[in-house]
Write a structure and sequence with these properties.
The structure is a single chain. This protein is mainly beta and 183 residues long. It has one domain (12-179): Sandwich (Jelly Rolls), CATH 2.60.120.200. The chain is 9% helix and 46% strand. The protein has helices at 124-132, 172-179, and strands at 12-13, 17-26, 36-45, 52-61, 64-70, 78-81, 96-103, 108-113, 116-122, 136-137, 139-141, 144-146, 153-155, 158-166. It has a 5-stranded antiparallel sheet with strand order 9-8-7-2-14. A 5-stranded antiparallel sheet has the order 6-5-4-3-11, with no helix packed on it. Strands 1-10 form a two-stranded antiparallel sheet. The radius of gyration is 15 Å and the shape is globular.
Length: 183
């Protein structure tokens, strides 16, 4: 799948609370060594329009869901695991509707998939992250992840029907209702 991103020249802003929701249909696990199926990237591209300079996102690996963030001064992304008892139930070749919320004031990250609560994580780094970012967003992609290290960028093999960014933390109930509607 070609990486989907906002039009060149468009720019948005991070808010103190955000929720990302995507409905994706991964066809295969990508890369034998890291086994990734879905990913979302939101942030600021470098001038090369390939590498993410700063931002946040999530990815679905065979080891479970992971949230990542990238700061300008770091060479690579920092990872926060959202693994739980429920997080390893993930199938490819079927629709996956996921929501991940970020509260930059409390450091709480929550995830719901297919109408079911998956996990909550708390990260001290998330509490201070927004103050370290420029706040600008010129990439919001439900299909790609951009890194300098190891993989460069990875594009999901599959389909995406919709991608939403909310300027607030959706409640668990709202995310369960939103992701429980299947195509």
């Amino acid at each position: 799948m070609t990486c989907i991103r906002n039009p060149l020249g468009s720019e948005y802003r991070f808010t103190r609370q955000m929720t990302f929701c995507a409905r994706q249909y991964p066809l295969i696990w990508l890369k034998d060594d890291i086994r990734i199926a879905t990913m979302v990237s939101v942030g600021l591209f470098e001038n090369d329009n390939i590498t993410i300079q700063e931002g946040i996102g999530y990815a679905r690996y065979t080891t479970g869901p992971w949230v990542w963030f990238k700061l300008k001064e770091l060479d690579d992304v920092t990872w926060v695991s959202l693994e739980s008892e429920r997080s390893n139930r993930f199938d490819i070749q079927q629709w996956q509707h996921s929501c991940v919320s970020f509260n930059f004031d409390t450091g709480v990250i929550q995830m719901v998939e297919n109408g079911e609560f998956i996990s909550t994580a708390e990260s001290e780094e998330i509490k201070t992250l927004l103050d370290k970012l420029s706040g600008r967003i010129n990439i919001a992609s439900p299909t790609c992840m951009y890194r300098r290290q190891i993989s460069g960028y990875i594009s999901m093999h599959g389909k995406v029907s919709d991608f939403h960014i909310f300027g607030r933390v959706l409640s668990i109930t709202e995310m369960e209702e939103f992701t429980g509607i299947f195509i």
